[in-house]
Automatic annotation (TrEMBL):
GO terms for biological process: carboxylic acid metabolic process. Residues 7-17 have a biased composition (Low complexity). This is Glutamate or tyrosine decarboxylase. Belongs to the group II decarboxylase family. Sphingosine-1-phosphate lyase subfamily. It comes from Micromonospora inyonensis. The keyword Transferase does not apply. Gene3D superfamilies: Aspartate Aminotransferase, domain 1, Type I PLP-dependent aspartate aminotransferase-like (Major domain). Residues 1-21 are annotated as: Disordered. The modification N6-(pyridoxal phosphate)lysine is found at K261. Keywords: Lyase, Pyridoxal phosphate. The keyword Isomerase does not apply. One of its GO terms (molecular function) is pyridoxal phosphate binding. PANTHER family: PTHR42735, SPHINGOSINE-1-PHOSPHATE LYASE 1.
Amino acid sequence: MTDEARTAATGPTGAVPPALPAQGVPAEQVLAEIRALRAADRPTHGGRLFAYVYDPAVPGLDELTSAAHAGSAHVNGLDPTAFPSLLAMENALVAAAVQLLGGGPGTAAPDAVGSVTSGGTESLILAVKAARDARPDTAEPRVVVPVSAHAAFAKAAHYLRVALDPVPVSPETLRPEVADVAAAIRPETVLVACSAPSYAHGVVDPVEGIAEVAARSGVRCHVDACFGGWTLPYLRRLGLPVPRFDLSVPGVTSISVDLHKYAYAPKGVSVLLHRDPALRAPQYFAFAGWPGYTMINPGIASTRSGGPIAAAYATLRHVGDAGYVELAARTVEAVRDLAAAVRATEGLRLMAEPESTVVCFTSEDPGLDLFVLVDELTVRGWHTQPQMAYGELPASVHLTVTASVAPRVAEFREDLADAVAATRATGPVRLPEELLAMASGLPPEALTPDLVAGLAASLGMGGGTGAPDRMATVNTLLNAAPPALRERLLIEFVGLLQRPAH
């Protein structure tokens, strides 16, 4: 955050107005304060943000979804019998996802059903829960996932006390081998998962082979299509060679797709589909052992606002099938042009030839520091996502490409060239030897509050100032740390940021 943006957000004293003032504040003043705070954020529209948000650049869509959200914001999804409008919209969203992802009448999954969730993480947690609870006699349930699977599977395993069995991916193809997945399945395995595509690199796992070995072992198979499930079918219709990945594949028992990604609905709406109602049944939680109402929930939350669901329904109705074809076509054009810009840049290499909506690249030149390059692109107004090295996979830069990017590609190409030149002129980040030794050898439990505070201050993160404008040094340190220490460092760093003012 720049000093100017921070002042605009907090005022000249640097203090955010208290959330609970002694006396109420006029509505216009409150809205003005929120607008000032938002001025410090990355722009969510305009095709310059390559992560976190999905912008179709459809005129009037924001106004439509805001109105739909407001009209149903106070509707509560806790009881579908009390609010039939919400039940109707949820069923309509699920039906659209079923149709798009290989289910429904006349298909191999005619009885497919689903639930609307708050996002991909909840969908994956519920897929794991359903698989675990379907095997109540398994004392130590396990889930097999490629190492490239979304981190939400690890979160699900942590929350649900399920063991995670990671399968390596090839450094060349960035996919797991089907034989390795088969070898990882044990009698205690309750679920095998794969990605369509993986978030980090945008490649589609060998779903057909993985589903076959899972079915042969009598194990459920979940396809995480949260990221690409709404766009891959349209890419196929545009002539791209998209492999089968959905409910049309025998052995796939469930699949998830986020509507707040490439369906371009506002946050946060995802859909979790099961091949039939029996497979979905263990997803539910019901409890009657108290004197209040009998609780029955398909998801993690009980009370759920109808706002996001109404906004998603409005989005799908307004864009329509033909509109999604057009948005996919614009996205493909942007992906091809961005990939060409990377190929034309000496020292950069695509991690994989794009086959979805991701452009991911790494550096093969020691003088071209990826983390410095990310900072230089940020200075030029482009928000990209650095990814740390993992095993044999090098550090990389991830670009989530949306339809709004297409008109900006030429501008990005020029800025990339300038940023690369500036990165070479700056040179790589050089951490002190003692800091590198600490990052590579310090056990996570040895991090003391004093050590964390001193380290954060040396990285420009102390004193409640938020994250530094340039993150290359922080990212270099995190990249040098093993995953367990990296996790602990990030917990401590984010904990320093997320503290209320007193």
